[in-house]
Amino acid sequence: HVQLVESGGGSVQAGGSLRLSCAASTGTFRSACMGWIRQVSGKEREGVASIDSDGETTYADSVKGRFTISRDNAANTLYLQVNSLKTDDTAMYYCVLNYYSGSWSFVYWGQGTQVTVS
């Protein structure tokens, strides 16, 4: 059973920074594509950033230059450094793990960590 546990969210003023973490309970972490997705209640989910097993990263245009995704495969942990926060960044941030086994694709979500920017 895969568990993803996020931490690091909180309330900050605009312009501030946070470091979100996601600890994975599975050794498949190192071969998985990982990402952060955020959602505001009543609105659609938005992909924020992703990083594949080779370390290749992608970002939503809205966060480019401000957010940095990284991973520590030895610690099975995913990070999201969020800088220059804006009120529009307020959302629940979810860690997502996606890995493939043969022809099967598996996707797991964490419980989320709230980021509030005022």
Explain this structure to me?
With 118 residues, the protein is an all-beta fold. 0% of the residues lie in helices and 54% in strands. The chain has no helices and 11 strands. The chain has strands spanning 4-7, 10-12, 18-24, 33-39, 46-51, 57-59, 67-72, 77-82, 91-101, 104-109, 113-117. The model has no long low-confidence stretch (mean pLDDT 96).
SSE arrangement:
Blueprint: E1 4-7, E2 10-12, E3 18-24, E4 33-39, E5 46-51, E6 57-59, E7 67-72, E8 77-82, E9 91-101, E10 104-109, E11 113-117
Parallel strand pairs: 2-11
Antiparallel strand pairs: 1-3, 3-8, 4-5, 4-9, 5-6, 7-8, 9-10, 9-11
Quick structural gist:
This protein has 118 residues and is mostly beta strands. It has strands at residues 4-7, 10-12, 18-24, 33-39, 46-51, 57-59, 67-72, 77-82, 91-101, 104-109, 113-117. The strands form two sheets. Strands 2, 4, 5, 6, 9, 10 and 11 form a seven-stranded mixed β-sheet that branches. A four-stranded antiparallel β-sheet has the order 1-3-8-7, with no helix packed on it.
- Report the uncertain regions: none
Q: Shape from CA axes?
A: globular
The proportion of strand residues reads: over 45%
Please provide the ordered H/E string of secondary-structure elements.
EEEEEEEEEEE
Helical proportion?
under 10%
Average pLDDT number: 96
The helix count comes to 0
Q: Let me know the number of strands.
A: 11
Radius of gyration: 14 Å
Alpha-beta classification: mainly beta
